[in-house]
Amino acid sequence: MPKGTNQKRKLMVLARFLQKHSDEEHPLTLGQLQEELERWNAPAERKSIYDDMEQLRQLGLDVQTRRGVGGGWFIGQRDFELAELKLLVDAVQSSRFLTQKKSSALIGKLESLASVHQARQLQRQVYVDRRIKTMNESIFYNVDRLHGAIGANRVISFHYFEMNMNKERVFRRGGAEYQVTPYGLIWDNENYYLAGWDHDREEVRHYRVDKMTDITLTDQRGRDRGSWDLEGYTRRHFGMYAGRPCQLRLRCAAPLAGVFLDRFGQDIMLVPQDEEHFTVTLDLVVSPPFWGWLFGLGAQVEVLSPAWAVEEFRQRLDQVQDVYDTAKTQEA
Asked: Which of 246, 284, 249 minimizes the C-alpha distance to 265?
């Protein structure tokens, strides 16, 4: 084998072996390196390995040396620190958006960025509330396709469905194709949503990506989004449900300050009313999930305005009360 070819092979073998099998707590000895090179039919003498390590450093690999008993060579700084990889693994494993198969594949790729010793620490178990991994792995590729459509500013077509009580798909709009200019993807409450201009309804709407099928990029150029703001749109839509937009004013018990800051962000203004209460005005789209969330806070929150919102919340409370009053009457 020509000398130059053999040298390239040596460097490649050493680089891969160091990256996979070494870290600060597990340096590789000269003997281990020579044994690996022999396995790849690229034998090397002691002095040449020292020279090889220097070449790897010059190529950008952070090869560190530890002298003395238990010493050797190891990879110091990597693209990702172990703590960063743990966070990424936890995020992948806890996502209900990803199938179990796709989660395992992604975690395997993340593990390859660490040594085999560190990878064992990445084999973690994270509990996910209602762990029902989506069965539709095509979502993973649909997201990539949608990103491409957004970048190319092209109208997309797709079918949209919901599930009935028999766990069957029921297509919206009688199975007709949706024509949408995609504006952006939103990650909310463990689901991906596509926000965009609906050419049939002539307004911005959003759609759950896992309920979209037959996504196709058309040749039609997308509609200009103008001043439309993805962040603002997401912030106003509680739980990504449609509803009526308004400036909702609430009177809240003081202990709920943290609850509102956690849910709506640090930018909202909490106005002290007295030592025990504050008022807050929320710019949002009022929807059933929002009313449900508000109901969970009980008597600690009062809706002040607008008047139609006060009345709507009162009616919803009355409807719930009627259900239990009726049930109580029937039992009697």
From this structure: 284
pLDDT digits (tens, 9 = 90+) for 107-125: 999 999 999 999 988 876 5
> C-alpha angle with apex 263: 257 to 267, nearest 5 degrees?
75
- Sequence ranges of the domains in the chain: 3-75, 82-122, 138-228, 237-326
Query: Which amino acid, one-letter code, is at 77?
Result: Q
Buried b or exposed e, range 104-133, using 16+ CB within 10 angstroms: eebbeebbebbbeebbeebeeeeeeeeeeb
d(CA 177, CA 180): 10
* Burial of residue 9 (number of CB atoms within 10 Å: 0-12, 13-18, 19+): middle
| CA–CA distance, 215 with 31 (Å, rounded to integer) | 56
Higher pLDDT: 325 or 75? It is 75
CATH architecture, domain defined by 3-75: Orthogonal Bundle (1.10)
Could you give the CA distance from residue 147 to residue 183 in angstroms, rounded to a whole number? 9
Say which CATH topology domain 138-228 has: SH3 type barrels. (2.30.30)
Beta-carbon contacts of 133 under 8 Å, excluding residues fewer than 6 positions away, are 96, 98, 99, 100, 103
Residue 237 contacts residue 285 (beta carbons within 8 Å): yes
Cite the DSSP H helix spans in the chain: 3-21, 30-39, 46-58, 82-94, 100-111, 116-122, 138-152, 230-236, 257-264, 288-296, 307-331
Indicate if the alpha-carbon torsion angle 151, 216, 220, 186 is positive or negative. negative
Q: Is residue 131 very low, low, confident or very high in pLDDT (cuts 50, 70, 90)?
A: very low
Q: Which residues does residue 26 pair with via DSSP β-bridges, in sequence order?
A: 23
Could you identify the residue written with the tokens 């989506």? Answer: 134
- CA 204 to CA 16: how far, in whole Å? 50
